[in-house]
Amino acid sequence: MKPLIVLTFALVLLLSSCMRLDNNLFHNTAVSIYLMEANKAQQEITLDVTYRIPDSLIHLIQLTSDDNGNKATIYAEYLGDRSRIATDTVILYFHGTRDNMDYYWNRAKLLANVGGKNRFGVMTIDYRGYGMSGGKPTESGLYADAEAALKWLHNNGLSGDRLVVYGFSLGSAPATNRVANPGVLTPAKLILEAPFASAAVMVQDAAVLAMPPSYFTNLKVDNAQEIKKIQQPFMWIHGTADDFLNINTHGEVVFKNYHGIYSEAHRINGGTHTNVPAVWGIENYKTAIEHFITH
């Protein structure tokens, strides 16, 4: 193919709406009802029956998210005994860009089995426009939705010193934002798995033409800058074979920019964007998460 043809083809792709980062980043899937456990997806993580969470410890919750007057009803799931939120340590998990909470069910179950069955409470949410949650996904909506979850936990007795925030992929944005700019609760610790450095870097990674990132997206997410504000202990996990969010241009940058009191890095050799716990080893993953939370 001649250079001019290649250049023209690239330009057409980049200028098309399907190449807008705000469209590509939010791979939301709406549902009319959340599936029962046996039908939930596994996202490259297979867990045996010992990881099953009793129905009595699975709670579907409705939250009102207020994004500067733009309100939406969003849905969350809490795994654990709600009566113990006032005394438990809780992991607030923000999932990735694809689908909805059903797709990440095994990840939530895995966290609920860290250190023993339901040792820690686990809460996960569907951002507006995902799953059964109303509204349309936006960057400011992500942060409002995260704050709605934090308010619910606060109202149920959780204090910030017992809160661990975990963000995976897209979820690294609300996770980092809420730790860097705390609202009703100030989280005690932050875990990021496969975080992206910024919307600008995502555009640079994908683009073959040197054009301003703002030409393609309205997103201003900049985890690499926000992480500089954070002093709480930070755990970073990233697969070396991640072909969606490159470990060098994204994860390493975020980790390097952290200047808080404690950090640990886990570069998982051969791990892709979605299978890090499996490649690392489920037991290794659980042990590392438990150690970080309890030490």
Give an overview in words.
By secondary structure, the chain is α/β, with parallel strands linked by helices. It has a single domain, classed as 3-Layer(aba) Sandwich (Rossmann fold). The chain has ten helices and ten strands. The chain has helices at residues 3-15, 21-25, 105-112, 139-155, 172-180, 199-206, 223-226, 247-257, 276-280, 282-294, and strands at residues 27-28, 58-67, 70-79, 90-94, 98-99, 121-126, 163-168, 189-193, 234-239, 263-268. The chain has an eight-stranded mixed beta sheet, sandwiched between helices. Strand 7 (163-168), helix 5 and strand 8 (189-193) form a beta-alpha-beta unit. Helix 4 (139-155) crosses helix 5. It is globular and about 45 Å long. The N and C termini lie far apart (57 Å).
Give me the strand/helix succession: HHEEEEEHEHEHEHHEHEHH
* Count of DSSP-assigned helices: 10
What gyration radius follows from the Cα positions, in whole Å? 19 Å
Strand content: 15-25%
User: What gross morphology would you assign?
Assistant: globular
Predict the CATH topology: Rossmann fold
Write down the overall mean pLDDT. 87
The first-level CATH class name? Alpha Beta
N- to C-terminal distance: 57 Å
Unreliably modeled segments: 1-21, 207-216
Looking at how many chains there are and whether they match, the oligomeric state comes to single chain
Please give the number of β-strands: 10
Structural class based on helices, strands and sheet pairing: alpha/beta
Helix content: 25-40%
CATH architecture grouping: 3-Layer(aba) Sandwich
Main β-sheet: number of strands, strand sense, barrel status? 8 strands, mixed
Strand order of the largest sheet: 2-3-6-4-7-8-9-10
Question: Please, how many domains?
Answer: 1
CATH superfamily: Alpha/Beta hydrolase fold, catalytic domain
